[in-house]
Specification:
Among the domains are: 2-81, lambda repressor-like DNA-binding domains (434 Repressor (Amino-terminal Domain)), CATH 1.10.260; 197-306, Immunoglobulin-like (Sandwich), CATH 2.60.40. With 307 residues, the chain is α+β, with helices and mostly antiparallel strands. 14% of the residues are buried. It is 47% helix and 19% strand. The two termini are 56 Å apart. Residues 84-106, 157-191 are annotated as: Disordered. Residues 88-106 have a biased composition (Basic and acidic residues). InterPro entries: Bact_Cytoskel_RodZ, Cro/C1-type_HTH, Lambda_DNA-bd_dom_sf.
Length: 307
Amino acid sequence: MNNLGEEIKKKRLEKGLTIEELSQKTMLSVAIIRDIENGAFNRYEGDETYVKMYLRKISSALDMDEDQITQAYVNLTQQLKAEEEEEANKKAEESEQELQKRKDFQFERPNYNTKGSVYADKPHLKYVRGIIVVVLISLICAVVYIGVSVGKSGSENTKYTNTSNTATGKVNTKKKSSTATKKKETKKKAAKKKASTQVTFKRLGTFQYQMVLPKDTKNVKLKIVFGARCWVGFSANGASLNGLSSKIYNAGDTVEQTIDTTTLRQLTVRSGNNTGTKYYINNQQIPLTDAESKMTVTRLILTVAKS
């Protein structure tokens, strides 16, 4: 599929554009444009719809025929799938032949000669075995009898001379009281710390939420667990968010970023496929509705309020 990528790269160079400049014009990440120019379409298997959208944006920015470029991509993907199917059929045929060979192969059953019992020609061994068993049983009985006799005589000779079960004096409870006080202080500190990071969410509309933070909150931790492969972009107060790059994430990927809230008014997360994705602020999940959790192309807007 490299011919299509080379054609796009050639057109970009003719326009005198760098990959970064083309990225700004198309709102696509540098990584996506570089993959397309290198013909690495196999990385986007299953995301053909997104690739077509990327190609239309690039074709429009480079004054290329959108339909022609899209159709060239469709033809190439069909060719690749046909080659993959042919290779899979070939491997299946080889596996079937190998399985048939294993079924046809049979081991010869060995001919074992039966042999009589070990005692068949040595009858005196039976008597020896009987004597050994009787001796072992006698020894076990003797050991048990000796153990019971010793235990009984020991218990009869035991005498208790202590007849007082009372204790006099003062009990010092100061240490226990101090320990209880420390536990209460620890619980108060833990409750105060939890209250300082507590976040409440208020739904303003579809994918629009207000997060209410304590008054003295200086930063929050954003965490996203992706439920599907998608392209994601981040912005804070309308500008790029430092520390988080806009790119493609795979299902199961997790990103975390601490965000300064002293000047934060609005946090925006754009997603090309939101299905199954979960969002957290200070490890508290944003309560998306069932309908929002199943939506694909979304833009989550979080406004900040402090109590």
